[in-house]
């Protein structure tokens, strides 16, 4: 290609630690969708970096990308990335990818889905390795020619922790047409629950950042028998997995908990969101919170912690925002318990959630509107 100087979209090289079949969180979903939409307008290469100690821990099944002359996938060790020479614009999407690109000596732009400096709970577990990871990530992001943040909150944190004052803010996009209220339940696991029974839904990786400890603590305080469905997989560590199982064992008998460890696919998740009476996300750290958006699009009320990019993502919707637990764990626990007692049974809240205004606001994040912005950033990168 000629570098896009004639207005053509340049050949994009996406680099990530997550791509089907190894997808564990929102970053992997974003890279998958970005590749899918880009491949309709230009050549795309994807490098899936191998070597993660938990790389086989997959929990979010996505359709295998269709083979195309405009799309290629390569799997390589992070240390071997310097040998990769695909594309005109290198676009990294994970800390390992940022670092690999920096060490390769090639120009690159980086999307920041989260930053290590915002996750201090890892310091106790990893000690000096955590500090080294923060320093290396800071160096890699400062070396990027362009930095893209998934929310205004991440942009502020980059300036605060890493001294990066200028960045683009492009939230993760989604296809609004794929998320809607779905009365069917044929894509849901049978025999685990009568799916017409009201239940509270929690989703997300088993990690301290998702705040499951607060959710299980609130369950112990509820008098009303409650059914919780936890779509939780890909534990960040063996310790996190053991802790999650210990919380499950302490749930009072008056409650029912269904733990879905493996993913359901997009259709299954659409039905799961639609069947839930409330989607709860008590996260202590959330750069964006794509599952909250998906739930609202399916017509299900959302209760989420007002941290990180969540207030921006949910904006003018009837979502219930919880206080930051860092400002007072007791206040946070009281409010969460109150919401779990009332919100799943509030017809007015459900009616507001399904109002056209909610969908209209969320439609701003559709790929149709976000992709042109990404193409503009790529063109700017090619032109220097």
From TrEMBL:
Q: Output one GO MF annotation.
A: glycosyltransferase activity
Q: Which SUPFAM superfamilies match?
A: UDP-Glycosyltransferase/glycogen phosphorylase
Q: Which Pfam families match?
A: Glyco_transf_4, Glycos_transf_1
| Gene3D superfamilies found in the cross-reference section | Glycogen Phosphorylase B
- Ranges for the Glycosyltransferase subfamily 4-like N-terminal domain? 25-175
Domain Glycosyl transferase family, by residue range, is 194-352
Heme in keyword set: no
Q: Name one GO biological process term.
A: lipopolysaccharide biosynthetic process
Q: Which UniProt keywords apply?
A: Glycosyltransferase, Transferase
Q: Which PANTHER family match?
A: GLYCOSYLTRANSFERASE WBBK-RELATED
Under what name is this protein listed? Glycosyl transferase family 1
Query: From what organism does this protein derive?
Result: Sphaerimonospora thailandensis
Instruction: List the lineage, top down.
Output: Bacteria, Bacillati, Actinomycetota, Actinomycetes, Streptosporangiales
